[in-house]
Amino acid sequence: MNGFVVTLTTRLWQLAAINLAALGLTVLGLGLLGLAPALVAALWATARLDRLTAGELVRGMWQQYRSEFATANLSALPVLAVVAGTLALALVLPVIASAFLLPAALLMSGFALATLVVVAKLRGGAGDALANARAGFGLAPLRHVALAPLLPLALWAGSQQPLILVYFGLSIPCLLINQTLAPALAAAMPAQREFA
Question: Model-level pTM?
Answer without folding.
Answer: 0.84
